[in-house]
């Protein structure tokens, strides 16, 4: 039996699992992607013409210690020629035909994703270009990002205070990256495709890992259509398909119902994935709802796991708040050159 059966070995094991999971699902994932598409596709930055601030907080498997927690703060806007009020839901429905805007969109977000001893955080800057075609819009997006992978040494409890792994290795990695996306909107229909982890950066903790250990490119396909039932009620089916170069796949199938475009409820079925190795992405049924209050949108999602872990946890919870700005024409005067 090895002399040093201590928490460091657990930490190394978790790190191995985490790096394996990076191949399966490297970026933080969200149940309410249809509400915050910018976190999935950089081409959606400024697509609505308004300025949007978004905050997302997610806690996985409530009731366990050290389970994944994700927090994201994002911002994106359109560099406008004329004012557009993104806060009004009725205006948002008609943005493709009423919007007179510049073609440039920009955005950024920062995030922190903590799981056990591994802390994963970073930021992203995005640029988008929008082409309006009557009541349609085609958007292209590019983003550059950098993130940090850190093994939290302060949370490790040692039986042996001198550990070769901790003293001889750098426990923090800094990794650059990039993503691209295309997004199409036509009245009540939208579709987008995006790719992340384009640089396929190497992962190496000192003597742990290898320069040949690289991040895999990931691909996302989403689409949705909002059906008008009557003047007050709409139904929107949508999906998000995720895969990578190892053909590890997963699909979210969603249906949301809207009342006056200001109140909505929805349900999602998340497949367990084909060859998905990351247990954070196992199959689930997700219940969600949201409300628009003036310029604010509040939303909540509850994930009920379809695996045995649900017996020992209170489920996963995700909160979302956004604020829409765009009703002050003077803020865009200096952007007339776009």
SSE topology:
Layout (H helix, E strand, L loop, with lengths): L6 H18 L26 E9 L9 E10 L10 H5 L1 H4 L5 E12 L2 E16 L2 E16 L12 H5 L3 E15 L2 E8 L5 E4 L2 E7 L3 E8 L1 E2 L4 E12 L5 E10 L3 E8 L13 E10 L2 E10 L10 E10 L13
Antiparallel strand pairs: 1-2, 1-17, 2-3, 3-4, 4-5, 5-6, 6-7, 7-10, 8-9, 10-12, 11-12, 12-13, 13-14, 14-15, 15-16, 16-17
Textual characterization of the structure:
The chain starts with 6 loop residues before the first helix and ends in a 13-residue tail after the last strand. Residues 1-25, 83-87, 91-100 and 327-338 have low confidence and may be disordered. Strand 11 and strand 12 form a beta hairpin. The longest helix is centred in the first third of the chain and has 18 residues, at 7-24. The radius of gyration is 21 Å and the shape is globular. With 338 residues, the protein is mainly beta. It has helices spanning 7-24, 89-93, 95-98, 164-168, and strands at residues 51-59, 69-78, 104-115, 118-133, 136-151, 172-186, 189-196, 202-205, 208-214, 218-225, 227-228, 233-244, 250-259, 263-270, 284-293, 296-305, 316-325. The strands form 2 sheets. The protein has a 14-stranded antiparallel beta barrel with strand order 1-2-3-4-5-6-7-10-12-13-14-15-16-17. It has a two-stranded antiparallel sheet with strand order 8-9.
């Amino acid at each position: 039996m090895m002399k040093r059966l201590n928490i460091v070995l657990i930490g190394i094991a978790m790190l191995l699992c985490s790096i394996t999971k990076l191949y399966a699902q490297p970026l933080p994932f969200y149940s309410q992607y249809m509400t915050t598409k910018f976190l999935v596709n950089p081409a959606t930055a400024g697509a609505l013409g308004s300025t949007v601030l978004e905050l997302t907080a997610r806690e996985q498997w409530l009731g366990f210690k050290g389970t994944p927690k994700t927090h994201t703060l994002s911002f994106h806007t359109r560099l406008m020629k004329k004012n557009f009020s993104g806060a009004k839901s009725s205006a948002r429905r008609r943005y493709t035909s009423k919007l007179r805007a510049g073609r440039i969109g920009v955005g950024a977000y920062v995030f922190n994703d903590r799981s056990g001893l591994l802390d994963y955080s970073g930021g992203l800057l995005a640029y988008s270009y929008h082409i309006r075609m009557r009541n349609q819009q085609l958007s292209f997006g590019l983003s550059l990002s950098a993130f940090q992978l850190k093994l939290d040494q302060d949370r490790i409890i040692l039986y042996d205070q001198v550990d070769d792994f901790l003293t001889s290795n750098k426990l923090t990695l800094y990794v650059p990256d990039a993503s691209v996306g295309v997004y199409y909107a036509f009245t009540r229909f939208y579709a987008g495709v995006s790719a992340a982890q384009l640089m396929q950066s190497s992962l190496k903790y000192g003597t742990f890992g290898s320069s040949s250990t690289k991040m895999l490119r990931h691909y996302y396909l989403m689409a949705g259509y909002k059906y008008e039932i009557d003047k007050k009620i709409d139904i929107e089916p949508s999906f998000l398909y995720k895969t990578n170069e190892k053909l590890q796949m997963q699909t979210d199938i969603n249906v949301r119902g809207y009342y006056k475009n200001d109140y909505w409820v929805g349900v999602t079925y998340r497949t367990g994935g084909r060859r998905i190795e990351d247990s954070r992405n196992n199959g689930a049924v997700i219940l969600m709802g949201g409300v628009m209050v003036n310029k604010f949108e509040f939303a909540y999602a509850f994930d009920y796991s379809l695996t045995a872990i649900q017996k020992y946890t209170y489920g996963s919870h995700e909160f979302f708040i956004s604020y829409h700005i765009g009703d002050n024409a003077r803020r865009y005067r200096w952007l007339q050159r776009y």
